[in-house]
Design goal:
With 143 residues, this protein is mainly alpha-helical. It contains six helices and no strands.
């Protein structure tokens, strides 16, 4: 075997090693992106729970802060960090809450505290035919 053959074999082995390294890195990047998406989805759900927890005794105030949590969730979705099926559930929930009398009044009085993108999105939502929130489900919401 001459030096040219040895050189060609070593270049082939080196090329294969480079290709395998690139494939390994691609798999790792894909996994880390998936983990980041899952963490974002979990953070969105946690944010909504954390926002509502301190306001349990004041329903109107709690609803106002919940809409800000929905804006964060919407941002995660439009940024591609939230699964579409999970987002559809949040969007459906938002349709019910944005039509609630307290939130609707606040929305009309203070739209500027939300991003333009979120205002456009909320204003494009169809109101639910049968509004259901925690209060209406239990028959305790003030009309």
């Amino acid at each position: 075997m001459n030096w040219d053959a040895i050189s060609a074999i070593s270049q082939l082995v080196g090329s294969i090693a480079v290709v395998l390294s690139v494939l390994y890195l691609a798999v790792q990047v894909h996994r880390s992106t998936r983990v980041a998406k899952l963490a974002t989805q979990d953070a969105a759900a946690t944010a909504l729970r954390d926002v509502t927890k301190p306001f349990m005794e004041n329903a109107e105030l709690e609803r106002i802060w919940r809409v800000k949590a929905f804006e964060t969730i919407h941002f995660h979705y439009v940024s591609g960090m939230m699964d579409k099926q999970l987002w559809e559930g949040w969007r459906g929930l938002l349709r019910h809450y944005i039509a609630a009398p307290g939130i609707a009044q606040y929305w009309n009085l203070r739209p500027e505290v939300f991003s333009e993108r979120f205002r456009n999105f909320v204003n494009s939502l169809e109101p639910p035919a049968d509004q259901r929130t925690v209060g209406t489900l239990f028959g305790e919401e003030r009309k």
